[in-house]
Amino acid sequence: MKVTVVGAGAVGASCAEYIAIKDFASEVVLIDIKEGFAEGKAMDLMQTASLNSFDTKITGTTNDYTKTANSDVAVITSGIPRKPGMTREELISTNAGIVKSVAENLIKHSPNVIIIVVSNPMDTMTYLTHKATGLPKHRIIGMGGALDSARFKYRLAEALDAPISDVDGMVIGGHSDTGMIPLTRLATRNSVPVSKFISEERMEEVKQETKVGGATLTKLLGTSAWYAPGAAVSAMVQAIANDSKKMFPCSCLLEGEYGLDDICIGVPTLIGAKGVESIVEIELTESEKAELASSADAVRKTNSLL
Ligand SMILES: NC(=O)c1ccc[n+]([C@@H]2O[C@H](COP(=O)([O-])OP(=O)(O)OC[C@H]3O[C@@H](n4cnc5c(N)ncnc54)[C@H](O)[C@@H]3O)[C@@H](O)[C@H]2O)c1
Ligand SMILES: O=C(O)C[C@H](O)C(=O)O
């Protein structure tokens, strides 16, 4: 499998590193507009190959899309990250132009590519990628829910004082500070509902901590996070490579599912060789439906700025 990662910055390099360490792809191409930057990151990563025991070949290029030709998967991480105090939505004016031109360049050289969109505001950038490329909807996937769910599990494990491998949970909705919907009702510790172990008040705290997970890290780091985002993308790329039909909440184009149309927003999906193999429609309570509707309203408001 050939994977292109556009943007060799913090998230792009982390994606490339995790993909290589898992050793399931034959080739990763890093591409960036900053002269020599992707080449440098690729060389540095390749010098970890003998230490980390991988055979994936990582190369870098400065904006030469011919090097990305015939990629099976492309990950778009190009664009600016937020600074402390900003929302992801504030990045739209810079990142929309970057994501649109990158998506157009990618499909010129890789007509069969599956695109994973990471750049923020991610749900709107995923929608924009659909509009810019016209690719079949199963080949454009926004990454947000996989990361948000990992953060939810981290917070759940902390609250339960349990190993992370014991907890399960999922976050749907928009990838934003207010739009995420951690599905607390369905969270479990080894199949037992977490409500058995923690109070409603503590559960509400876990929910709020999860929703502002990205903002909390941005405040601590001075820029947004990269390790967990890179790991989340690599898990999705691996599910495509292995055709594993693994369930991740992903932002994908909805056409009536969950009562929503012409919008990209996080819902449970099965990810396999086709990209989005299917959208899984789970039964939501009235209050969860109301949260999803309001999250969708906010995403539409950002989409209207395109
Ligand atoms: N969806 C998510 O869950 C998630 C998680 C983390 C970060 N992000 C987003 O990912 C993006 C990247 O974050 P980062 O921390 O890696 O930023 P970064 O600044 O470290 O890296 C971005 C890179 O993109 C490059 N770039 C800019 N324009 C380009 C173009 N036209 N073609 C190729 N490369 C270009 C820059 O030169 C830079 O190296 C941000 O928008 C951030 O908000 C999303
Ligand atoms: O928080 C951000 O701005 C980056 C990313 O969306 C994240 O959730 O880490």
From TrEMBL:
Q: Which domain of life is it from?
A: Bacteria
User: What sequence ranges are listed for the domain Lactate/malate dehydrogenase C-terminal?
Assistant: 147-301
The record's top EC class is oxidoreductase
Where is each Lactate/malate dehydrogenase N-terminal domain found? 1-142
Q: Which residues bind NAD(+)?
A: 7-12, 32, 95, 118-120
Task: Give the EC number(s) under which this enzyme is classified.
Answer: 1.1.1.37
Q: Which UniProt keywords apply?
A: NAD, Oxidoreductase, Tricarboxylic acid cycle
Name the residues that bind substrate: 82, 88, 120, 151
Q: Where is the active site?
A: 175 (proton acceptor)
Q: What catalytic activity does the UniProt entry give for this protein? A: (S)-malate + NAD(+) = oxaloacetate + NADH + H(+)
Task: Check the record and name the Pfam families matching this protein.
Answer: Ldh_1_C, Ldh_1_N
Q: What does this protein do?
A: Catalyzes the reversible oxidation of malate to oxaloacetate.
Name the protein family: Belongs to the LDH/MDH superfamily. MDH type 3 family.
Q: PANTHER family, alphabetically?
A: L-2-HYDROXYCARBOXYLATE DEHYDROGENASE (NAD(P)(+)) (PTHR43128), L-LACTATE DEHYDROGENASE (PTHR43128:SF16)
For this entry, the protein name equals Malate dehydrogenase
Q: Which organism is it from?
A: Roseivirga thermotolerans
